[in-house]
Amino acid sequence: INAEYMGKKISELSGKNENECKTYLNEQIDKFIEERIIVSQELIKKYADSRIVNGDVIVIYAASSVVEQTIIKAFESGKKFELIIVDSRPNLEGKAMLRRLSKMKIPITYIFLNAISYVMKRATKVFLGAFCLLSNGNLVSRCGSSIVAMMAKEYNVPVILLCESYKFSEKVRLDSICENELTDRKNLLGFSGDELLSPNWESNSYLQLLNLVYDLTPINFITMVITEFGVIPPSSCYVIIREYSEENLYN
Question: N or C: which end of the chain has fewer CB within 10 A?
Fold first, then answer.
């Protein structure tokens, strides 16, 4: 749930007892989920589906609920296309999406990130999900997204970002290091080859395992952003933030 939204609602609790506060906050959380997530994703699916045509070869990376729903909607509407799921270790998020989508009769190719240049030669579109879209148009998303977008740029394949407006941020970042999240370093060792490290590798002061969660994709790698408000260029992110200010957007 958006922190600004919750902060505003908590500030309205003055004079209410504990039960009233709980009831009010639960109602506001349900309202946020319904209006800002569920309805937004329905509209994004509608706009994104119109961008898919017969014969498309669509590249997606890792896992995104709104991207997955868009693919399902396009398939159920009778469109014939091929899907390429790009995945990466250690999380292998794309494998779960592969498991779900493979139950449908969609031609799917599943590859790891290191083979992205091979499949991008025949791709027609790239769909990406977002963790956060910054006010300068840069994208913060699952680590590896920037490589997919960069390769798409190299092969002149449009990169289409599907992003709900509650993920828009007034912040500006120029790299992935200043603000990021770290996950368990041991996840990097969960594949064949981990025997190359000795059991006491953690005591080795010369060795660091860095497992970043997100990376930053520059604005010039993104062709368009599809939100519940329609299709916009990534440079218009701040316009959405400004026009739909907290008073108008979160009431």
Answer: C
**What digits encode the pLDDT tens for the residues 158-213?**
999 999 988 998 888 777 777 788 887 777 776 555 555 666 777 778 888 888 88
Gap between the Cα atoms of 4 and 25, Å rounded: 14
β-bridge pairing 224-227 and 230-232: antiparallel
Q: Please give the model's pTM, rounded to 2 decimal places.
A: 0.86
Check: CB of residue 226 under 8 Å from CB of residue 67: no
Count Cβ atoms below 10 Å from residue 10 Cβ, excluding itself: 13
Complete edge-to-edge strand list for the sheet that includes strand 57-61: 108-112, 82-87, 57-61, 125-128, 159-162, 224-227, 230-232
